[in-house]
Amino acid sequence: MQALVVDDSGAMRRIQQKMLESLGWEVKTATNGEEALVALNGLPDCRLMLADWHMPVMDGLELCRAVRRDGRYARLCIVMVSSDGVIDSVQNALAAGANEFIIKPFTADALVCRIEEAMRG
Amino acid sequence: MASQAATWARLRAFVKNACGVVFTDDQEYLLEARLGPVASDNKYSCVADLVGAIGTMPPDSVIVRAVIDAMTTHETLFFRDAGYWRTLDEEILPKLSAQLNRRRMRIWSAACSNGQEPYSIAMLLEEHWPDLARNTEIIATDVSAPAVERARGGFYNNHEVNRGLASSRLLRHFQQEPGGFRVKQLLRDRIQWSVHNLLSHWPDPYDCDIVMCRNVLIYFSDTDRSTVLHRIEAAARPGGMIGLGCTETSPRKQLVPGWYEKPGYESVQAPAGTLSWGPSRGNVDR
Ligand SMILES: C[S@@+](CC[C@H](N)C(=O)[O-])C[C@H]1O[C@@H](n2cnc3c(N)ncnc32)[C@H](O)[C@@H]1O
User: Any idea what DSSP says for residue A121?
Assistant: First the structure.
């Protein structure tokens, strides 16, 4: 299954890519929301997106909203990644269309939990 | 001064006697790793001095409690093993709640660690079984007094909420605090906490509709394991459900991984001889 990792930090992209690959995902990456939208266009079977909240050009929140406006991505599960572990951020992320929220830094097993929740729908 | 090996042997005997947890020879590294901090917090110059001292201390002293806490593994997470909780929600609660007949429901989480398991019960009930939630007694116990205190506080850091807790549940049942999140008062008030040792003569809860005893038997010897299996079954009412960890073997046939029924409710009778452990309750002198 295909997944997209969207993060402006190269280190974070690599960590998340490794974690997902070890779980059997085929991973593509993008460095901001706009790039992610372009990438998604070419990934009709993508089932999972990990989107960082704070990114230049287009942030994770705007990306979520844009994805949710587009009927083609109805099956895409979104996990919002952010270092602000505050209730308001979680609320805003879910309101923007994210399925789940994970607080940075996180371990692979925590990511597995969040993905399972997101995919459960 | 006692050799490292002698100290390790002494500590192992102490911990086995105190709570049943056994270690292997090759876990000697745990001596320093786990007790080093307890020794320095309590101003002992080395772990050997600490281990030498605990033998004569009362079991409820702060230092003994800290040693037991350090030597037990508290690894846990919210809604550990999703399928186990789905079975509880979709099959067990419908059946058991129909048998209640105006009684209150009683659920015992028998090795609750830092509280994620009993809070998962409370969240699930509040979400899907709100009437039942108000009529359920949740009893949560653990041998480690510091673990019970952490659990009672209901405070979890970012890492702990990242694990197992759906974001919607975080929003619904927790409030923000510096450095993490605290379970809301409503749910905290639904759980009765106490320190309890599955291998001592302390009285157990009784007439429980559900007993969860998950991921703790693995640390015990065979004898202690069967003693505890008898005890938790005795704590359940006939027809009550017992939930072990999903990979643990049970004395009776499991309906789904982890869950089995205590026979005796109406027509449900186990034929004699189905027990794989002896019928008499083993007594442990502690
Ligand atoms: C790995 S945790 C399991 C927590 C939870 N039940 C779960 O499955 O996630 C094991 C717990 O068993 C507790 N424990 C160990 N020996 C015990 C005993 N004799 N009586 C009660 N609890 C005990 C430990 O303190 C620890 O918190």
Answer: -
